[in-house]
């Protein structure tokens, strides 16, 4: 089987972007867009310098250095796999606990964009308020020692301070994480951290640095033996290959004072209406993931495509999407929401992806308040008590109890797992304990109709089982 190679002279590339967080998603998403753009002969001064702040980033750097910074990306099309070597990255900054090399790289005038994928939970958001948490221990440590920051945001603040002092224009900070208003969230983290040690710098950043919002989408499963075997089948000895679905989407606000690559030439969408696309994706795709992940795990179903082949789960998802999610999503330019829903269902059913239900269930304490609970609120606001979404949240509670339907122990799968497990076990007899978690459900527990609907759903799951609860909803 052939492997597509970069169709440009990588020796002529120069860096314009530092990207923090070289995980699978970045290499399957942003790096492939730039690889395609470079192949058109465009914007060769926008190559990527990789970077990271965690020990795992150092291991990734070592692996990629051994293959001249090339990434193997395998698209898992059901009609046939396609492999390519992506060459958009031309170096990887040394990983250091004090982030000196990273700060030095971001100080360079030719770096006009700093982008990052540090995961949804990496922005130091207080779950109780949904805002940046200046009291987070890592943030407090960086504020106390701004010249030796341990976090990505501390390094960004230090680099911006150095650029201001040198009279160098600031870079644009582009979040590529799956967060509502990710640019606004990144601004809050950077400005909030700077304000703790240098209020004048914080004001300068708030005034002069652009933080465009962006919506990103591509399913890129974790790498394991299966993925390395796929690379080997293409004749590649790569310890860190990336697999992904054929679909990709990137919607970005066009706010780049220092310039940007012409990504619209390779399919990116620049629009001031990113929030509309974002709402569509977060509610329909991420909400759909949350709806199927928990019943699948509870029923002992390992993979997402296997969950979609289970008639109970597929019917549950389709009814929730059709009746409770699509009706509350605002119109999106150039998109039919029902067509988008069908696209999502097909993507979930792709057997080549082998995405796991466990991955979908990870970090529910962070994801439920973003992907499920806002849809519950919007339905209640339109006079509808959304039984399916409430059942999805009850299934999350049942999952966090720590055993599946067959009595097998569920390994911890949330940063707050111990607390969630204790609360879920208490909620078996008193469901109000679960929805009383104000950091997650807010004031929903003050709504008697919601409380009654949740209690009914959770009792149904415990008393009649997951399959019966799904059937009761879809047939009712």
TrEMBL record:
Keywords, A to Z?
Answer: NAD, Oxidoreductase
User: Which segments constitute the Mannitol dehydrogenase C-terminal domain?
Assistant: 274-461
Molecular function terms, GO-annotated? mannitol 2-dehydrogenase activity
E.C. number(s) listed in UniProt: 1.1.1.67
Is NAD found in the keyword set? yes
Q: Which residues form the Mannitol dehydrogenase N-terminal domain?
A: 16-265
Q: Does the keyword Ribosomal protein apply?
A: no
GO biological process assignments = mannitol metabolic process
Q: Note the InterPro entries from the entry.
A: 6-PGluconate_DH-like_C_sf (IPR008927), 6PGD_dom2 (IPR013328), Mannitol_DH (IPR000669), Mannitol_DH/Oxidoreductase (IPR050988), Mannitol_DH_C (IPR013118), Mannitol_DH_CS (IPR023027), Mannitol_DH_N (IPR013131), NAD(P)-bd_dom_sf (IPR036291)
What Gene3D superfamilies does its record include?
Answer: N-(1-d-carboxylethyl)-l-norvaline Dehydrogenase, domain 2, NAD(P)-binding Rossmann-like Domain
This one is known as: Mannitol 2-dehydrogenase
């Amino acid at each position: 089987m052939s492997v597509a190679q970069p169709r440009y002279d990588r020796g002529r590339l120069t860096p314009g972007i530092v990207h923090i967080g070289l995980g699978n998603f970045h290499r399957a998403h942003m790096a492939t867009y730039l690889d395609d753009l470079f192949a058109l002969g465009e914007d060769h001064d926008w190559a990527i310098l990789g970077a990271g702040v965690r020990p795992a980033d150092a291991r990734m750097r070592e692996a990629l250095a051994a293959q001249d910074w090339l990434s193997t990306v395998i698209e898992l099309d059901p009609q046939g796999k396609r492999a390519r070597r992506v060459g958009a990255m031309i170096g990887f900054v040394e990983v250091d606990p004090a982030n000196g090399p990273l700060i030095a790289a971001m100080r360079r005038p030719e770096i006009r964009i700093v982008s990052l994928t540090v995961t949804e939970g990496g922005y130091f958001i207080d779950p109780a308020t949904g805002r940046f948490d200046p009291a987070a221990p890592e943030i407090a440590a960086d504020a106390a020692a701004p010249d030796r920051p341990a976090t990505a945001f501390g390094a960004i603040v230090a680099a911006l301070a150095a650029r201001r002092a040198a009279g160098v224009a600031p870079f644009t900070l582009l979040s590529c994480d799956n967060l509502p208003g990710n640019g606004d969230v990144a601004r809050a983290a950077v400005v909030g951290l700077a304000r703790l040690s240098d209020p004048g710098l914080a004001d300068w950043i708030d005034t002069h640095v652009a933080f465009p919002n962006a919506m990103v989408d591509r399913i890129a499963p974790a790498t394991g033996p299966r993925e390395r075997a796929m690379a080997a089948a293409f004749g590649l000895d790569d310890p860190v290959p990336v697999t992904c679905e054929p679909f990709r989407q990137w919607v970005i606000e066009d706010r780049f004072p220092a310039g940007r690559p012409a990504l619209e030439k390779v399919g990116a969408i620049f629009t001031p209406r990113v929030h509309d696309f974002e709402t569509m994706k977060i509610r329909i795709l991420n909400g759909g993931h949350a709806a199927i992940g928990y019943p699948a795990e509870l029923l002992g179903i390992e993979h997402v495509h296997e969950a979609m082949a289970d008639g109970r789960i597929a019917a549950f998802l389709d009814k929730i999407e059709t009746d409770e999610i699509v009706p509350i999503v605002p119109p999106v330019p150039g998109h039919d929401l029902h067509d988008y829903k069908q696209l999502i269902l097909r993507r979930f059913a792709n057997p080549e992806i082998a995405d796991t239900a466990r991955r979908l269930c990870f970090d529910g304490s962070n994801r439920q308040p973003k992907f499920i609970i806002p849809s519950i609120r919007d339905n209640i606001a339109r006079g509808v008590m959304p039984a399916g979404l409430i059942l999805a949240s009850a299934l999350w509670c049942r999952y966090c109890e720590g055993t599946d339907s067959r009595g097998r122990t569920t390994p911890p799968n949330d940063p707050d797992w111990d607390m969630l497990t204790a609360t879920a076990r208490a909620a078996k007899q008193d469901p109000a304990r679960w929805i009383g978690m104000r950091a997650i459900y807010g004031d929903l527990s003050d709504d008697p109709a919601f409380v009654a609907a949740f209690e009914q759903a959770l009792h149904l799951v415990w008393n009649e089982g997951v399959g019966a609860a799904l059937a009761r909803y879809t047939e009712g």
